[in-house]
């Protein structure tokens, strides 16, 4: 990735060069704001072959989409910098961002779009297949595995819901309880009604042949033929660098992981800091993340306009205040001379 020369001060620093961060930066750059995107170069969707559910860009490789986004941000004067933030502190009316290379940059406002990390169950072979035939989102990958023999590995509170969703794409779905409790009576009834098979026992490994998933092997040695496996990972916000602002990830209400809470406009509880994309919305796909980034960018610009206006009014009043003070001083001096 081409690296831009970093300045020492920007209107806005954006953490994360994914869809949310780049679209937020694009809105800000088009609003003639100085903006820098700090991108670690590790997008969550890198293993995927294509982006789905994004009108006009259906199936585009993630790397190509991001490269186009970076070029668009740069086209309006924004900077995209390869690097990583290690800390942020509030300084005066803005922020100072510490970078991993030892440098630092100041900003008036911050947009956190650093995304999340998917924590997967500790099953040998699982991580290597992630984004290929091991998947998590049927809306992202369901079409590609339609009518396949699909397994669902129970890993959290959303696994039953995930299995029922996957059933929309295939009639051959098997639910592996793994290390989780078995389905409740109500869930078991739902599975039976939808023809979803339940297999008890921990999953020991994946069976791979010719670089394809062909089955799931249990601890007792039983092998169950499968062509794809769905897993609900625990999703954790990449936000450790925000500790200096007292802004820390909290458990998401869904139980799916941790996120940085933000309101509908993207404002976090830390003044001057906005969040967009998966770092705050764990289920946002690329289109939703990009839209949230654009909305946050517009909100940040409006906030800066309000601050710029306050400063301009104060500056405009200053000469009148100085002249008034001078007149008052002259009046007082005159009164003193006349003994008043």
From TrEMBL:
Q: What GO MF terms are annotated?
A: thioredoxin-disulfide reductase (NADPH) activity
Could you list the residue ranges forming a coiled coil in this record?
none
Top-level taxonomic group:
Bacteria
Entry-linked Pfam families: Pyr_redox_2
Protein name per its UniProtKB record: Thioredoxin reductase
Q: Which UniProt keywords apply?
A: Flavoprotein, Oxidoreductase
Q: Which reaction does it catalyse?
A: [thioredoxin]-dithiol + NADP(+) = [thioredoxin]-disulfide + NADPH + H(+)
Where is the region Disordered?
318-340
Q: Reply yes or no: does the keyword Hydrolase apply.
A: no
| Provenance organism | Murinocardiopsis flavida
Q: Which InterPro entries match?
A: FAD/NAD-bd_sf (IPR036188), FAD/NAD-binding_dom (IPR023753), Ferredoxin-NADP_redctase_2 (IPR050097)
Query: What PANTHER family does its record include?
Result: THIOREDOXIN REDUCTASE 1-RELATED-RELATED
Instruction: Using the record's annotation, list all stretches that form the FAD/NAD(P)-binding domain.
Output: 10-293
């Amino acid at each position: 990735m081409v690296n831009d020369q970093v300045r020492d001060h920007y209107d806005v620093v954006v953490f994360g060069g994914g869809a949310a961060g780049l679209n937020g930066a694009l809105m800000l750059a088009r609003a003639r704001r100085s903006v820098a995107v700090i991108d670690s170069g590790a997008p969550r969707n890198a293993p995927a072959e294509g982006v789905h559910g994004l009108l006009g860009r259906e199936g585009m490789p993630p790397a190509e989409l991001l490269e186009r986004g970076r070029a668009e941000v740069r086209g309006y004067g924004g900077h995209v910098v390869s690097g990583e933030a290690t800390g942020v502190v509030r300084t005066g009316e803005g922020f100072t961002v510490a970078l991993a290379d030892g440098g630092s940059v100041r900003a008036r406002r911050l947009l956190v779009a650093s995304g999340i990390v998917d924590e997967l169950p500790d099953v040998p072979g699982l991580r290597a297949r992630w984004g290929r035939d091991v998947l998590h989102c049927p809306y992202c990958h369901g079409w590609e595995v339609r009518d396949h023999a699909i397994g669902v590995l129970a890993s959290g509170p959303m696994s039953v819901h995930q299995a029922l969703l996957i059933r929309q794409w295939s009639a051959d779905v098997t639910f592996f309880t793994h290390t989780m409790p078995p389905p409740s009576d109500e869930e078991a009834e739902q599975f039976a009604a939808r023809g979803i098979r339940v297999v008890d026992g921990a999953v020991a490994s994946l069976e791979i042949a010719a670089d394809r998933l062909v089955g799931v092997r249990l601890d007792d040695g039983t092998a169950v033929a499968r062509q794809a496996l769905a897993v609900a990972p625990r999703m954790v916000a990449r936000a450790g660098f925000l500790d200096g602002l007292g802004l820390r990830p909290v458990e998401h209400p869904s139980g799916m992981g941790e996120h940085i809470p933000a309101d509908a406009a993207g404002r976090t509880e830390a003044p001057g800091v906005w969040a967009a994309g998966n770092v705050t919305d764990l289920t946002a796909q690329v289109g939703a993340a990009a839209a949230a980034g654009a909305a946050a960018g517009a909100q940040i610009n409006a906030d800066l306009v309000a601050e710029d206006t306050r400063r301009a009014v104060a500056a405009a009043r200053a000469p009148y205040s100085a002249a008034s003070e001078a007149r008052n001083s002259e009046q007082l001096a005159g009164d003193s001379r006349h003994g008043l």
